[in-house]
Design a protein that fits this description.
alpha/beta, 29% helix
Length: 232
């Protein structure tokens, strides 16, 4: 994975990427409007555009592409300072907000080192290791609603309906999202990750998986990840 990200697709990326690449048309541009942890876009080929509404996350990716030196260690005091002064260094904020937070949830709590594990250094090493696969990705901070794609392969991993909301971003309107997906599907190949979808979308791929959410017995809750497309 590129960076730990709550709700990311690191564990099932190979299945999604394989499906997407097998349905990709020749010279088709790939677009990802909700890039998150970049687990899918980093494994796709050819020309790739990655967008996200979290400007700090995008600044981190662009900073890494431009040679920004990420830290090897981070104290809890530094974590809290960065959380309260996000705009002093947006690249660092993006890295710390996800890579140094518990379970990769945006400033969801300082990830303390445990049993010799250095969360900060692990996050840095993960990004460095995956850098060759994202160095030519075009990252931009954009609201998906303003995009106007044509003849593209599009993969969407939006905030799932009824799941944990992310702090620092507006509430996600799922009805509006599906309406835009219908419009995009007119002249694009659009695939959406979700657990459920409106009746006019069909499931083309199912992947049993475990979530980061635990039940009352402290066991990971199992879910069926699905990939949907519009039934034109």
């Amino acid at each position: 994975m590129i960076i730990q990200y709550f709700g990311g697709k690191a564990k099932i990326a190979k299945y999604i990427v394989s499906f997407l690449e097998s349905h990709r048309k020749e010279n088709q541009i790939y677009i990802e409007p909700f890039v998150g942890g970049a687990n899918i876009v980093s494994k796709m080929t050819d020309k790739r555009y990655a967008y996200d509404l979290n400007e700090y996350l995008i600044e981190m990716y662009k900073g890494v592409q431009n040679g920004y030196e990420l830290p090897d260690t981070l104290s809890e005091e530094q974590y809290q300072y960065i959380k309260n002064h996000k705009d002093e260094d947006k690249i660092l904020t993006g890295f710390v907000g996800f890579g140094c937070s518990f379970a990769g949830k945006w400033f969801g709590g300082y990830a303390r080192d445990h049993n010799g594990r250095n969360y900060c250094k692990n996050a840095k090493n993960s990004i460095i290791k995956q850098f060759p696969y994202i160095k030519d990705v075009i990252f931009e901070c954009r609201d998906y609603k303003i995009l106007n794609p044509h003849n593209c392969l599009i993969y969407c991993d939006p905030p799932y309906q009824g799941t944990t909301k992310y702090t620092g971003v507006p509430d996600f309107d799922s009805n509006e999202f599906w309406s835009i997906m219908r419009r995009w599907s007119i002249d694009n190949d659009v695939y959406i990750s979700e657990y459920n979808a409106p009746n006019d979308f069909i499931s083309v791929l199912t992947i049993p998986t475990k979530t980061d959410i635990r039940d009352t017995n402290n066991k990971n809750i199992k879910r069926i990840e699905k990939l949907f497309t519009y039934s034109k």
